[in-house]
């Protein structure tokens, strides 16, 4: 093993996914020298095994479903999807799992890339062990930002490793359609991958431990998605846990807690995420390896004046767009502290990740899509506020019927009755993913309901659902 002498940078970033890239972009824009360490592909989980490949798989599924709702087009799209073409299109969006373009972008902003495994080696120090055994020691004058994200969490079932189960990575990168697929879980990954692979030709069995799907959203979101999956041919079983799983002569055999035996070609466990902090040297600075890293609103790790944790690793919101938002905040905070200028950490200030606390948007790209921002009714009631939920059928919007025959969807806004502002909005239905940003603006900006009355939706669009919601609230 060879080792270079210590090299000093203003900032060292662990992880070159979208979050790490954005921290580097902001610190470089402020004139700080920045090193980025990555052990896999530059671009991270989102680019190669999550957001981009999953949405590439889902896009033709959703487009076909939408087309089948339109008279005159329905008959033209009755055949099966071309699975090979869909998978090839997915490969295009992952750049065939090559990161040349992302490396070029990182180098273009002036960041220095170190390939290899990065570990903290005490305060402000990172060692990097490269693929050929070479070792670099990097020191940070101002900040180390941990942007290592999360990995799939598998349950502790005996012999599970011998089954070679799918996680989100295999589910988004598989090159063949399994004839039978068991999906374990009821969250975003489970529902999106069940939607995609069922449409591509798999017979999907979805095993959900809880009472319904998408438990973190309003109950009606999971109900509508479950109904659609069932209509598409999936076998959705709620209140069901996996007791054992084995692979016998290539066939996966699942036994549930109800005694059912299910055979499949592959099994996907979408049962949670764990922080990728188990081997990054946290013990050298008095922190627990493998733990989530608690942070303040500038994304600085509690008890440290130089260590930042940005994105999934801090467990505030496990979403790429929220991690990139945090990265912009963290980069600005690091730059301000380096320059010795005051920070604006007030609510909605330039150095405060305020949106993490009540204005987090999310879209689940199933059919129908489910989108939400802010608090659900149950979450809002738990805060002790006086609240009211207003529900409307999205088909009441003139644009819904034009979007497709038999449009099924539901919208809810949760109103703070004392302040008359929105605490949360949930939309479920075809095409609602493109509507959620208007709700995000209303929630984040705390727009009064009286002012929203004057935000006129264009006719005839599905956005007219806003008018229906406000009319229902006014009574």
UniProtKB/TrEMBL annotation:
Alphabetical UniProt keywords? FAD, Flavoprotein, NAD, Nucleotide-binding
Any GO molecular function:
flavin adenine dinucleotide binding
Task: Please verify whether the record's keywords include DNA repair.
Answer: no
Q: Is Flavoprotein among this UniProt entry's keywords?
A: yes
Residues annotated as binding NAD(+) are 185-192, 272
Q: Which residues form the FAD/NAD(P)-binding domain?
A: 9-321
Q: List the disulfide bonds.
A: 46-51
UniProt remark on cofactor binding: Binds 1 FAD per subunit.
Protein's name according to its UniProt entry = NAD(P)/FAD-dependent oxidoreductase
What is the organism of origin for this protein? Answer: Streptomyces adustus
């Amino acid at each position: 093993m060879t080792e270079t002498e210590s090299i000093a940078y203003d900032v060292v970033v662990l992880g070159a996914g979208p979050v790490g890239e954005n921290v580097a972009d902001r610190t470089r824009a402020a004139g700080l020298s920045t090193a980025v360490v990555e052990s896999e592909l530059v671009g991270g989980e989102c680019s190669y095994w999550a957001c981009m490949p999953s949405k590439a798989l889902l896009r033709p599924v959703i487009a076909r479903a939408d087309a089948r709702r339109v008279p005159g087009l329905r008959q033209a799209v009755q055949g099966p999807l071309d699975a090979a073409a869909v998978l090839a299109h997915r490969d295009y969006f992952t750049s065939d799992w090559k990161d040349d373009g992302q490396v070029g972008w990182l180098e273009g902003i002036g960041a220095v890339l170190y390939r290899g495994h990065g570990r903290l080696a005490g305060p402000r120090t990172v060692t990097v062990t490269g693929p050929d055994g070479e070792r670099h020691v990097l020191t940070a004058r101002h900040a180390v930002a941990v942007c290592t994200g999360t990995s799939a969490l598998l349950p502790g079932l005996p012999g599970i490793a011998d089954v070679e189960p799918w996680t989100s990575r295999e589910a988004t990168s598989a090159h063949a359609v399994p004839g039978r697929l068991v999906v374990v879980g009821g969250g975003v990954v489970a529902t999106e991958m069940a939607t995609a692979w069922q449409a591509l030709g798999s017979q999907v069995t979805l095993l959900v431990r809880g009472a319904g799907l998408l438990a973190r959203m309003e109950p009606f979101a999971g109900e509508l998605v479950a109904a659609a999956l069932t209509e598409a041919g999936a076998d959705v079983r709620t209140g069901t846990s996996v007791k054992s799983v084995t692979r016998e002569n290539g066939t996966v055999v699942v036994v549930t807690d109800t005694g059912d035996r299910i055979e499949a070609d592959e099994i996907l466990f979408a049962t949670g995420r764990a922080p990728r902090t188990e081997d990054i040297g946290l013990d050298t600075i008095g922190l627990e390896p493998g733990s989530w890293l608690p942070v303040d609103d500038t994304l600085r790790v509690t008890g440290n004046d130089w260590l930042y944790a940005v994105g999934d690793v801090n467990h505030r919101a496990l979403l790429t767009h929220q991690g990139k938002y945090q990265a912009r905040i963290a980069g600005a905070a690091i730059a301000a502290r380096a320059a010795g200028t005051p920070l604006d950490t007030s609510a909605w200030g330039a150095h405060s990740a305020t949106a993490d606390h009540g204005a987090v948007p999310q879209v689940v790209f199933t059919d129908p899509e489910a989108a939400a921002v802010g608090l659900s009714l149950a979450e809002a009631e738990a805060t002790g506020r006086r609240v009211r939920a207003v529900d409307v059928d999205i088909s009441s919007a003139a644009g819904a019927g034009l979007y497709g025959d038999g449009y099924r969807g539901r919208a809810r806004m949760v109103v703070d009755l004392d302040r008359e502002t929105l605490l949360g909005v949930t939309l479920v239905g075809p095409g609602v993913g493109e509507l959620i940003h208007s709700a995000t603006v209303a929630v984040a900006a705390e727009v009064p309901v009286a002012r929203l009355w004057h935000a006129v939706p264009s006719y005839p669009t599905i956005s007219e659902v806003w008018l229906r919601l406000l009319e229902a609230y006014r009574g």
